[in-house]
Design a protein that fits this description.
Layout lengths: L7 H12 L4 H8 L3 H10 L5 H28 L6 H8 L3 H16 L11 H12 L7 H9 L8 H7 L2 H8 L4 H11 L2 H15 L8 H8 L6 H8 L2 H10 L12 H13 L2 H15 L3 H4 L4 E6 L6 H14 L4 E5 L4 H15 L9 E3 L6 H12 L3 E6 L3 H12 L9 E6 L15 H12 L3 E7 L3 H4 L11 E4 L9 H7 L1 H4 E3 L17 H20 L6 E6 L4 H23 L9 H12 L7 H14 E6 L15 E6 L12 E6 L7 H6 L15 E4 L1 H26 L4 H7 L2 E3 L14 E5 L2 E3 L7 H13 L7 E3 L4 E8 H9 L7 E2 L2 E2 H9 L7 E7 L6 E3 L1 E2 L3 E2 L33 E10 L2 E13 L3 E5 L4
Parallel strand pairs: 1-6, 1-7, 2-4, 2-5, 3-4, 5-6, 8-13, 9-11, 9-12, 10-11, 12-13, 21-25, 22-25
Antiparallel strand pairs: 14-27, 15-27, 16-26, 17-18, 18-21, 19-20, 23-24, 25-26
Helix pairs in contact: 2-3, 4-5, 4-6, 5-6, 7-10, 12-14, 16-19, 17-19, 19-20, 22-23, 25-32, 27-29, 27-30, 28-30, 35-36
Protein name: Putative endonuclease Z1 domain-containing protein
Organism: Cellulomonas shaoxiangyii
InterPro entries: Put_endonuclease_Z1-dom, WH-like_DNA-bd_sf
């Protein structure tokens, strides 16, 4: 049984592996975690700068190259290789690498190729020094000579430069700095206090999100006497650490950091329910967001996206943002809190409770819900003039928003008032759903924003697929993204559908998937099992964790109200039978059968048990205390009253999707057919939240296709965050990410509703093949050496149905690094796009997954294929062959082997040994890669 809690030893090992240069994917595979989770753990341990990772990888690469250099020189010195090409073939690399690593020693054995008595002009010296300075700054003689020796640059030796000009004089002539003079100035010019001073000035000027790569740009313009960014990093350490120290006084929150009354008051509450690490992250993110607002930049109208996880505590971040904004002088906070009154009331109550607006006696806050009318405008204006902060929770509805815009338009000098607009679940209802004109809610948001020019608009969502793919000039397209990190103990899609799937996931047969219109005559068997699991789990949970209540179950079968009503009737009838059985039970066998069975399932999966008498007693209590709620648009229910009883079963559809929090949810039953929209399906997973200690009691019932889609969405979600973070950190924008990187989606799915985003380009992965290979001798030799290096020619044959083909297994990372990246082929050709293939492999969620590399040949001979001068090989892949040999299986065809027929998401590599029919004597190797069934979606060019 897996240990539910992460240990300090594990986190320390992960941190040390990352510090040593290990890839996030490799670390994740070693510990059974995702790439994004490894990134989070490393961040929680203090973070590792990319420069440090790059340095560690560089050191490892240097060691590997040193070993390869020794092998190269050995085969040359012993006479086994008499040319660079021969040496490359013998050691399994390319000729350019041999020349680069061999350096002077190689030319000594093989003979120098440089014409004798080269004469170097002053311009040659200057040019060589300037090129070398792009590799290292300041430039030392040793570093320069290494570049010359390895062939990276062409120029005179450092000794020759010393003879001709003198090293320092030559560097000065070239306009670069030599390391000796720089070291002297470096030691004598700046103290550590000076360095901290300049770092603080930079952050004060550019904001808390100031990137490391922007320091030198700022220094040149604003502080020419300041040291370079390299000096800062060498003397003070990693930039993230420098920035964190300046902003947060290390890893703890202090009164010097939170100077505002509202922030300090809220922080006192957060201390009681959050660990320091999570609390600091909350405040850091909201401070970063507000740095983009008009109170810091002087410019209004910015749109930001706060990207969280489903049920990860976005409301806490919203509350902190409101408190910090009030401290910064924002006097109006508009909160778009949902498209239903149920959501509006739920979220409004939470905000008011956290801010204390209804209980405080300092008269700091005024709440105006869905304001309208001239009298309200006068009241708001008076409150603002009196220095109050006005919280305006509003329904995300065109009529309500237009009324609010009209109210604010009447507030005196509203153009001078700093306004924060928060759009919760921003990808729902806010976006433009009309292709010919503006939809009503979208238009209302535009009008509202135009009435308050000095505003910051912040979108909150866990499913950002639509906002990120909007046109760059769209009103709601984000200018920046803030990545919200969940607190410790968060249990999300990764835990449910990947890490602990064996303990949590339960299968609903496809035949029990709810049809669109036909109500069930009886409860599906899987739902009876789910009810039994909920009752048994609740009985065990309340015994071992008495304060766990409320405990809830969610039944999500359809969007149709009449079908939901039928489910409510059937569940209520079943519960009545169970109460009768439990009231008279004297043994566990007298309880409903599914309750006893599910008790066994839960305890086998890790839930602690109780004795039989106690179990019977708690089952009676659970059944007696269970409240059944029907939550849909026709029910009169405006609010689930969680405090009425400790046990709840909720039945509903769309109203229980986005934004709705099911308190204490342990069992989810979802036999509704899965949506093809990523954002819609992900939002149905209400089971997530801070319940790591309750995970043994959690069960998720759904069909296999729903579970597969939800699992694949986990990989989409973490890929999105990783790729977008990397792209933005490297200086890109949301819009360039959407255009150049994009989303990686599961098969058959799309990011969101078609009416919301347009001009999307879909790149299906599937098969890519080098149909038109290079025919020159060097390319043929290089590709053959690659196949030999991975051991393909000596690999044992594997039976693929009539055909025995040599196969070797290597990791996904090795496929990219050892095969695809080195394969001698044009970057662009028929059926082959090197960039797309490389990107798809690099973005695979498990870099250490082993995949087959198969040598495609006919009984040890190359296959003959027709050749077209424009498109290359015709019918490179062999089709299905139903002929069976010795009673064995038929051959399914090249495109189906390697487990592709059973799992279309499989990665398979084939190296085809082929010859042209018009030139059968010349055989060559060409490459084909099956990249799985996912697809990359990018923003296309707008019309």
């Amino acid at each position: 049984m897996r240990n539910w809690a992460t240990t300090q030893d594990r986190d320390r090992q992960i941190y040390e592996m990352r510090l040593s240069g290990a890839r996030l994917e490799a670390i994740g595979h070693a510990f059974g975690l995702t790439r994004e989770r490894i990134r989070q753990i490393v961040g929680q341990m203090g973070g590792v700068d990319r420069e440090d990772v790059a340095a560690a990888r560089s050191a490892r690469r240097e060691a590997e190259e040193a070993q390869l250099r020794d092998r190269i020189l050995a085969v040359v010195a012993t006479g086994l290789a008499r040319s660079s090409a021969q040496a490359a073939t013998m050691v399994g690399t390319d000729e350019a690498t041999v020349r680069r690593l061999g350096g002077r020693a190689l030319t000594t054995w093989l003979g120098s190729t440089r014409p004798p008595r080269t004469r170097w002009a002053a311009s040659d010296v200057i040019g060589a020094l300037r090129v070398a300075a792009t590799y290292e700054w300041p430039l030392s003689r040793a570093a320069y000579q290494d570049l010359v020796d390895t062939g990276e640059i062409e120029g005179p030796s450092s000794a020759r430069i010393e003879q001709l000009h003198g090293w320092a004089a030559a560097c000065e002539l070239a306009g670069i700095e030599s390391s000796r003079r720089r070291r002297r100035d470096y030691q004598s010019t700046w103290t550590d206090d000076d360095l901290w001073h300049f770092a603080r000035k930079y952050i004060e000027h550019c904001g808390s999100t100031a990137p490391f790569h922007g320091f030198d740009v700022w220094r040149i313009e604003h502080a020419p006497d300041a040291p370079s960014s390299g000096v800062l990093r060498r003397r003070l350490g990693k930039w993230n650490g420098i920035r964190r120290t300046i902003l947060f006084e290390g890893d703890s929150m202090s009164e010097e950091t939170l100077t505002g009354k509202e922030s300090l008051r809220l922080d006192e509450q957060l201390v009681d329910r959050m660990d320091d690490e999570s609390r600091v992250r909350v405040w850091k993110s909201v401070i970063d967001i507000l740095e983009r607002g008009p109170q810091r930049t002087g410019v209004g109208g910015q749109t930001g996206l706060a990207l969280g996880y489903v049920q990860s505590g976005k409301t806490t971040s919203i509350t902190a943002l409101i408190a910090a904004a009030a401290d910064q002088g924002y006097q109006i906070i508009v909160a778009l809190l949902g498209g239903t009154n149920l959501l509006l009331d739920q979220n409004k109550d939470r905000l008011e409770s956290a801010l204390g607006t209804q209980s405080r006696k300092d008269y700091r806050w005024v709440t105006e819900v869905n304001p309208s009318g001239a009298a309200t405008a006068k009241r708001i204006g008076a409150r603002i003039e009196g220095g109050r902060a006005v919280l305006i929770p509003v329904l995300k509805h065109a009529g309500r928003l237009n009324a609010l815009a009209s109210v604010l338009d009447k507030v005196p000098e509203i153009e001078r008032v700093p306004v924060l607009i928060i759009d919760d679940e921003a990808d729902q209802a806010s976006l433009n759903t009309s292709s010919t004109a503006e939809s009503k809610t979208y238009e209302a948001i535009r009008i509202l924003r135009s009435r308050v020019p000095k505003h910051l608009y912040v979108q909150y969502t866990a499913t950002p697929y639509a906002p990120l793919m909007l046109d760059a000039d769209d009103l709601l397209s984000p200018d920046f993204v803030e990545f919200l990190e969940p607190g410790n103990g968060y249990t999300g899609g990764r835990e449910f559908f990947v890490e602990f799937a064996d303990q949590v996931i339960r299968d609903v047969p496809l035949l029990e998937e709810q049809p669109a219109k036909a109500p069930p005559l009886e409860l599906p068997r899987s739902l009876v099992a789910a009810l039994g699991s909920f009752v048994a789990g609740a009985a065990l949970l309340v015994q071992h964790q008495p304060d766990a209540a409320p405990v809830s179950m969610l039944i999500h079968s359809t969007q149709r109200n009449d079908v939901q009503e039928r489910y409510r009737f059937l569940v209520e009838r079943e519960l009545r039978k169970w109460r009768t059985a439990a009231d008279t039970a004297v043994a566990v066998t007298d309880l409903p059968e599914s309750v006893g069975k599910e008790r066994t399932v839960l305890t086998e999966r890790g839930a602690p048990d109780v004795d039989d008498a106690m179990f019977i007693d708690k089952v009676r209590w659970v059944l007696r205390e269970t409240s059944l709620w029907l939550v849909n648009s026709t029910s009169a229910l405006n609010k689930v009253e969680w405090n009425v009883t400790p046990v709840h079963i909720l039945i509903g559809g769309n109203k229980l999707d986005r934004g709705f929090t099911v308190e204490g949810l342990t069992v989810t039953y979802m036999n509704r057919p899965p949506s093809t929209q990523v954002d819609t399906l992900e939002q149905r997973a209400r089971a997530f939240g801070y319940r790591r200690d309750q995970l043994p009691y959690c069960q998720f019932f759904a069909t296999k296709r729903s579970i597969r889609s939800l699992r694949d969405i986990v990989f989409t979600e973490y890929d999105l965050r990783a790729q977008l973070q990397d792209h933005v950190d490297a200086g890109g924008t949301v819009h360039s990410w959407a255009r150049d990187v994009g989303l990686m989606l599961p098969e058959g799915m799309k990011p969101t509703r078609d009416v919301v985003v347009n001009q999307l380009d879909y790149l299906a992965l599937g098969w890519s093949s080098v149909r038109l290979p290079r025919l020159n001798t060097a390319s043929l030799a290089t590709n053959r050496a690659i196949a030999a290096e991975i051991g393909l020619f000596d690999a044992p044959p594997v039976d693929y149905g009539r055909l025995l083909l040599r196969t070797v297994d290597i990791t996904v990372a090795e496929v990219l690094e050892k095969v695809v990246a080195r394969w001698s082929a044009d970057e662009y050709g028929p059926s082959w796009r090197l960039r797309d293939v490389s990107e798809a492999l690099a973005r695979h969620h498990d870099q250490e997954q082993r995949v087959p590399v198969i040598l495609m040949e006919d009984d040890g001979r190359p296959r003959l294929r027709k050749w077209d001068v424009e498109t290359g090989f015709v019918n490179l892949f062999q089709g299905r062959d139903n002929v069976r040999s010795n009673g064995g299986a038929a051959y399914p065809g090249d495109r189906a082997i390697g487990n592709i027929a059973d799992d279309s998401s499989s990665i398979v590599v084939q190296i085809h040994r082929v010859a042209r029919r018009d030139d059968p004597g010349t055989e060559l190797l060409t490459l084909a890669v099956h990249l799985g069934d996912r697809k990359i979606v990018r923003k296309g060019a707008t019309a």
